[in-house]
Amino acid sequence: MTDLDLLQSWNSDWSKTKFLVFGLGVSGFAVADTLQELDAQLLVISDKATDENRDMLEVLGIASSIGASHAANLEMLAEFAPDVLVVSPGIRPDNEFLQAALNRSVTVWTDFDLAWRIRDKWGFSSQWLCITGTNGKTTVTQMVETIMRSAGIRAVACGNIGYSILDAIRDPAEFEALVVEMSSFQLHHTNYFEPLVSAVLNVADDHLDWHGSFDAYAAAKGKIYNNTKAVCVYNSRDEISFGLMKKSENTTQAQAVGFTRFTPTPNEIGWVEDILVDRAFVDTVDYADELATIGDLKKIPVISPHLLENVAAAAAIVRAAGVQPAEIAAGLGNFKLDAHRIQLVLEKDGIQWVDDSKATNPHAADAALSSFDSVVWVVGGLLKGVDMSELIAKHSAKLKTAIIIGKERHQVLAALAQHSPGTQVFEIESDLVMESVVGIASSVASSGDTVLLAPAAASMDQFIDYADRGNSFQAAVLKEHGNG
User: What is the pLDDT of residue 364?
Assistant: First the structure.
C-alpha cells in the first residue's frame, strides 16, 4: 500500500496505488481517464454508463464492471483491495457499496481530492476560486470566469458546472485560475484543498433527502471555507453563510469579505443605488471604489434583486483574485445569463413569459418571484424533501394563479390552500405538460402579469432535466403566441 501523503504532484509515483472509481458520470470518467494517464492501478465499478463511456474504457484498457449485482461488486472490492475509492458526487452517503468500502478502511476521495494533488501538471499550480450555495452558484461561477478572462487571465469555470475539474487541469490551455463550482454532494465527500478564495452565496433547504438533515447539508457547504488562503466571501444578509465562515478551519490568515445588494459597510461589496461599490479591497475604511453600474449589465434583460446580489458576490471574488476595479465593468458588459435563468422568453400584449426552470428549490424560486409583481406561477415537480409553505406565504399577495405540474403536488396544494387561499389553482394532468400549462396561462394572464416557470422542484419526474423542462415551456409559449 502506498503512503498517500507521498502523492502530492502529477510527477509523484502513482503506479503502486490501487484506485477504485465508483460511478461513471462526467466526473467519474474524468477520474478514470486521469488515473490511467498517471499509470495507477485501476478498476471502475458503476451501476450504469453511457455507450460512449463504455467504449472509451475499452479503448483505454481500463478494467471495469458496469451494472453488476451488489454481491458481485462486493466480491470485486474484496479481490481488488483498493487503497482509495474515488466516489462520484451522486453517490449517497448511505450507499451500501460505499459503506462496505469504508468498513474495509478504504480511503474515500472525490475528483477534487485528486485534482488538488495533481494541480501542478504544467509546472505551476493554478489558483482555485471555489464557489457554492443553494442558489446562484452557476451564475456567479460563470460571471467570475467572464470577468477574469476579460481581464486577460487564463481562467475556466469547472467542477459542478459541467466541465470536470480534472479535464480543466489537464487542458493544454494551462489555466492560471480554476473557477470551481462545488455542490453539496461533492463537498460532502471531499477531504482537502486550499482555495485562494472561497464563497458560500446562501444556504436554504435543498437536497435534505440526500443529506438527511439541514444541518448536514449546511455543514457540507461550509467545508468550502476550510484552508482558504486569501479571502472568505460570505453573504452579509445570510446568517448561515456567515456562521459557516466563522466556524471554518485553518482560515485565520484569510480576510472575511461580505457581499450585499444594499449599501455596503466596511469590508463589504454592495450597491449604492445603481452603482456597485467596493469597501473591502481599499486602503482606508472611509473610502470606496466604484466597480460598475447597472447599465454595464447590458446583455441581461431582467435585472432581479438576486442578480444584483450575484454581481456583488462575483465582484468580491475577482477582487480577491487581484482583478482591478476598471476591469470589472468591462467583464460584466460581456456577461450573458445561461438559458433557463429568469430568461425572458416573450413579451406580448403586456404579458411577460419568463423561464426560470433552473429554480429547482424554494430558495431559487424565491429569487424569481421577488422580481415580479403579479404572477401566474408554474410550480411543482420533485420536492427533494423541502417544505413550500414559507415560500408561498411570503409571496401570497402576488400569486394571481398557480399552475401545478409534477408528481409530488400534494404538499404544494396543501401549502397554497393554507397560505394563499385567494390564489386560483389549476392542476395539469395531461402528458402534454407545457402545452397545457401555456393554454391555461394564456386564458388567465392579462396585461401586467408575468407567467413564470419557477417550479421550486427538480424536473426528473416528467422531464430529462431542468433544461428539457425549460425548453418545453419555451417551445409551447412560442408555438401559442409566436415571436411577439
Answer: 87
